[in-house]
Write a structure and sequence with these properties.
This protein is mostly beta strands and 74 residues long. The chain contains no helices and 4 strands. The model has no long low-confidence stretch (mean pLDDT 85).
C-alpha cells in the first residue's frame, strides 16, 4: 500500500560552525559542503544579514572535498 521512499542525502551539509558573539552580534560562520559537487562554501548568518561565497585556499582556488567523505551508503 505504501511504498518506501529512498532516503536522499541533503544537498548541503554543515561541516564546521563558529559562533561570533563579539565580532558579529549573534552571528556565526559556517562551512557548507555541496554533497553533489564537493565544493565548500563559507556562509555568514546573523541578525538581518547573511552571505554565501565559495571557500578559497591560499592560492585562490575553490576548495573541493572528495565526495567519498559524504557518501551515505551503509
Amino acid at each position: 500500500m505504501f511504498e518506501k521512499k529512498e532516503k536522499k542525502r541533503p544537498r548541503f551539509i554543515v561541516t564546521h560552525e563558529q559562533r561570533l558573539e563579539k565580532t558579529l552580534a549573534l552571528g556565526a560562520l559556517q562551512i557548507l559542503v555541496d554533497t553533489e559537487t564537493g565544493v565548500n562554501y563559507i556562509n555568514t548568518v546573523g541578525e538581518g544579514y547573511s552571505g554565501l561565497t565559495p571557500l578559497l585556499d591560499s592560492n585562490g582556488n575553490v576548495v573541493v572535498s572528495p565526495l567519498s567523505e559524504y557518501s551515505t551508503e551503509e
